[in-house]
Amino acid sequence: MTITADTDHRSGDADTLALSALGWVLADEARAERLLALTGLTPDVLRDSLTERSTLAAVLDYLAGHEPDLLLAADALNVTPERLAAARQELAE
pTM to 2 decimals? Predict the structure, then answer.
């Protein structure tokens, strides 16, 4: 899966932003393995729960826990790191 830099996310689109962030994470094998290890998700559980807000929030939690990835993801998705953090908060509500 490839996430291009022309992706433009609007406010209030936390689910889509989290899915895009997940795509960005999964594009890098080491980053994807770290996501699975730190969240406890398995590929099957991740696949089966892609529409669950708790899963999407876990992806954004993962990014928030590692600032270099948070900054890289924000840049790749054309959003601010603060927007990713706000999306995580929206999904947790």
Answer: 0.84
